[in-house]
Amino acid sequence: MKYRRLLMLLALIVTATSIYAQSMPAQWLIYEKSYNGRWGAMYSSDMEKLVFTPTNYDVYVYSDQSITDEGEWQLKVTGYGGLSVVSTLIGVVPAEYPDSLILPMYNEGKITGLHRAEIDTTSIYNRADFNVEDGDWKPVVFGFDATGTLCSHNVGTTQTFSSDFSTKLNDNLILKDVTNSGLHHDWGYGSIMHIRDVMGDDYAVSGNLSGYDWYRSWEQNINMGSKYTYAQVVWKYFDTAIRQLDGLIATMEKRSKKTDLKASMGTAYAQKAMLYLDAARMYEFLPNERISSVNESGNDVAGLTYPIATSADSIVVRATRAEMVTHILSLLDKAEELLKVETRSASDVNNKLLANLNVVYGLKARLYLWTENYTKAAKYANDAVNLNLYPMLSREQWLDTLTGFNNRNASSWMWAMAYPEGSDLVISSILNWVSWCCNEYLSGYTRAGYPGQQPMMSKVMYDRMSDTDFRKLSYIAPEGTALYGQESTLNGRNNLVDYASLKFRPGKGEVSNYEVACVVDVPLMRTEEMYFIIMEAYAQMGQYEMARAYLNSLMTTRDPNYAYQFTNKTALLEEIMFQKRVELWGEGLNYFDDKRTNRSITRGYAGSNFASAAQFNTVGRPAWQNFVFVMNAYGGSIETWNNPDPSGCYEPASY
Predict the structure, then answer these.
(1) Is residue 147 part of a domain?
(2) For residues 446 and 214, what is the distance between their CA atoms, to the nearest angstrom?
(3) Higher confidence at residue 67 or residue 543?
(4) What pLDDT does 358 receive?
(5) What is the distance of C-alpha 393 from the center of its chain?
(6) Per-residue pLDDT at 64
(7) Could you please report the per-residue DSSP string of 110-163?
(8) How far, in Å, CA of 181 to CA of 183, rounded?
(9) Is residue 64 part of a domain?
(10) Can you give the residue range of the structural domain that contains 26?
(11) Per the domain annotation, does 122 fall within a domain?
(12) What is the pLDDT of residue 25?
């Protein structure tokens, strides 16, 4: 009899599958039902549950369980005629309520706020009274027959509701595999920073002929055209991140009617402004010695930047610099409006995943430096460091083997992104900042003897630095030089090459366990950058003594013997830019100054530590600094207005 009932039950299940499952993959489970010890079967798929009992075949399904933008829980309750369940009570309960206690608690009247939903072909229940606060919640459903007798119940999957968008905003910076191709340079904004660094002449890379260097094309100016993945990964990140920010902003606009989200919304606008400013400067076609601004279609793209659009828009054109500046300022003004009462206090300087007014002013300073409006660049850089909330890094902070350049608690960090514990990029162990930028981490792409791609300071930059400048201790000193053996390392020299970087330490100084080592923060903006903007602006405006005073003030915190004496504007600006390049080495920012100032790139010289295939010397900015859009960007709608392909237009130097 027992097996006969089970066969009948399975027959009913097969029939039900055609109604509910359609073509969805299903898994069948036989389990002991909690009501009177009777046997039943559960059909389960992603968001649906069907529960059968062998006596009256009670059926209910709830699906589409989600928290709406306004913080309301939406449940869809569905049933079919001829079933004993004719109505339900549904509600939400805190996730900490054990499933086994839900029914006793209901019987004791301890579960309140339930609402009735009658069973028909489709019954959707979306009530404002299901508003939930921050925390973990799960839905409950109680089924009743025509007599009002409780005959079944179920507890849904736990979901988290949070009005804190800082995690989602950070996730937008550490996007993984936006090209869906498994490329090992497709790991978000950190990778974009790394790309910019390897395109200059301060940041050399060892072992880049080993076949493991995914950044070789940007280092060696090959395969940079629109048909290659190197163009795809850069454009796809910016397009995806900007589109996701639009969605987050729309969600926050709805939710802000009930929750104060000014800090998160202001951060979203600031992040969007930063991405547009970065993309505009990267894609802006500026003159160079090798490639004309007239592309293969005969269109002159000189001065065109990035589209003020996304791939979801039907009309897409590249913006001029003036158009882009207006757009970015509108975003920053919106961020400033939202954050004007969110100025971070001295006691709250460590919540740096969110922006504040200082960050907004810092972005305006970057913007006006790009446009050569030095008066406003100086003004906003001064505003950014107002109140001295972010003191410059000390020698101890900079060189700390456990927290050096991996922790947003560092005093001068104004804004940061994070690789959180357990996140996809951390778990990958190799697709993250530490894998590509921390030479002491033994499980990443940079690890010594791999043959790893060890980031190095260029020999000429290292040699020019003063031996009394503590920043020089962030790089492996060659044997026989003054600082040999004075560097503080986590695991000795461990086959680290000469000039190899020690600036970015793995998390907590862990060199092996990726679950700890790869959990780090990365600086997006520091006080020191703002001071260098002030210096340059004053020098450009002819206020040389002011510029020199700022330079000496900052540099004596790095080198007690430093004392720059003014001779002429050209020399002063060159010294400011050199010290800025040293200060911001490896932080993804020096590319912008190189391109903006038409600086020549010099990699080919006696003793160069650049790979032979990357030893290019240019006159003025190199052609490769004008990024090319991938051919299918925006559905290919701007291909005839794309930047010309600069690939292979330089030969390694002979010396």
Answers:
(1) yes
(2) 12
(3) 543
(4) 94
(5) 24
(6) 40
(7) -----EEEE-SS-EEEE-GGG---SEEEEEEEEEE-TT--EEEEEE---EEE-S
(8) 6
(9) yes
(10) 2-161
(11) yes
(12) 24
